[in-house]
Amino acid sequence: MNLPTSDRHVLACGDEAQARAFETFAQEHDALDLAAATWAARQRNGLDAQAQAELEAWLAASPAHAQALEDMAATLGQVRQLPADAVAELRRGFQGRAQRPPTPERRNWRARLGLGLHGRPWLAPAAVALLVVAIAGAGWTGVESWRKLPTFEQAFATDRGQQTVVTLPDADANGSTLQLDTATRLQAQLFRDRREVQLQDGQALFSVHSDTKRPFHVRAGNLQITVVGTRFSVRHTASGLDAGRTVVSVEEGHVRVARSNDPTGVQASEPAVELLAGQMVVGDDSGHIGPVAQIPPAAIAPWRAGRVSFDNTPLAQALAEFERYRSTGLVINDPAVADLRVGGSYNVQQFARFVDSLALMLPVRLVPQGEVREIVLRRP
Q1: In this model, does residue 47 exceed pLDDT 90?
Q2: Residue 290: is its pLDDT beyond 70?
């Protein structure tokens, strides 16, 4: 429903409960009636330049809008003649309203106005206009509150060693898919004008359904990634590779990466970075974005194939990466051992091969220590 976005006076709700009430009302009644009633009331109160531009855009969007606005303006003029007590009663009942049968009083209001039901629910165009009149002077900000309510929200999580794929209901068919790696937690929310995912920990591959009217935002650490439709990977983990940092890699399309200022905006002091397919950036724990780097397609989200890859990676960090998928039974107590470097690509299900290769790659040996084995330096 294309209601005016800047309205602060009409169809208003002061808090979430009232916004939820309007949500129920909006779902039950004709979207065109609601939008036309809002614009009719705003016209009566006067429009600034921005609002006038919004109205013209709304009128241009469909030939039906102009007629709906004309009809609703006439209906609104009639409804404004209702007695004050009738308007006050509607305002009181708005928040707690449900689908109720019409009361005799409401039938009388419609009869006095010469407005029949015509086979439609009692809350039809005249009642929509009545609602506008009832709350227009209350100083609420309901459209904005209503628009800020998510239409869908759900948390997703995987256990250690588990991977899963979820599909978001952001399209009638072929919605956006999120492929979650091990030990990943995220929160997904869909709104009328945008889609948002908060990656709290872990990594995920996003295949985003293209929708220019609802950009797709991923927030991870202190970064915000914005796309319309593409395929990209985001990693933000507390342990393992790049711990504490946020890594964004693009497989298809392009994305915009920026430093996140707060849950609703992006900090303008540092320019955003545009990434194309085959590119990646790393953001540190303060949100500073590093230089753009090239990345081969096979190196993007190798965990999809059950693999982890190391390139001159400290042994302690490599071990922590394996720990994200399974218990390794290995410990490191010597900083010199922790800083030894390893490389290569390994199947996470064949961790024993990595362990066997340690003595070949590094000057170390494994020493039993109760239920675990400690990796220690091998002395000459």
Answers
A1: no
A2: yes
Distance CA 277, CA 229 (A): 13
CATH architecture observed for domain 152-299: Sandwich (2.60)
Tokens for 82, please give them. Answer: 């209702």
Q: How far apart are CA 220 and CA 222, in angstroms?
A: 6
DSSP string for residues in 216-234: EEEEETTEEEEESS-EEEE
How far is CA 261 from each of CA 54, 62, 228, 265, 281, rounded to the nearest angstrom?
28, 37, 21, 6, 18
**What global pTM score does this model have?**
0.65
DSSP 8-state symbol, 81: T
Q: What stretch of H or E contains 377? A: strand 372-377
Residues of each domain in the chain carrying CATH 2.60.120.1440: 152-299
Percent of the chain with pLDDT over 90: 47
Radius of gyration of the chain (CA): 29
Number of alpha helices (DSSP H) and beta strands (DSSP E) in the chain: 11, 19
* Integer Cα distance of 181 and 164 in angstroms: 7
Residues 6+ apart with CB under 8 A from 260: 219, 222, 223, 224, 266, 267, 287
Residue type, 282: V
Beta-carbon contacts of residue 230 (< 8 Å; ≥ 6 apart): 206, 208, 250, 251, 252, 253, 254, 255
Residues of the chain with CATH 3.55.50.30: 306-377
- Helix, strand and coil content of the chain, in percent to the nearest 5, comes to 35, 30, 35
Eight-state DSSP code of residue 269: T
Q: CA 25 to CA 123: how far, in whole Å?
A: 9
CA 107, CA 18: separation in Å to the nearest integer? 25
Distance, in Å, from the CA atom of 320 to the CA atom of 316, rounded to the nearest integer, reads 6
Structure token pair of residue 5 = 């976005």
Mean pLDDT estimate for the chain: 78
- Say how far apart CA 295 and CA 234 lie, in whole Å: 14
Residue 289 DSSP symbol: B
CATH architecture of 306-377: 3-Layer(bab) Sandwich (3.55)
Residue 276, token pair as written in the block? 């194309």
Are 59 and 69 a contacting pair, CB within 8 Å?
Answer: yes
For tokens 């302690």, the residue is: 316
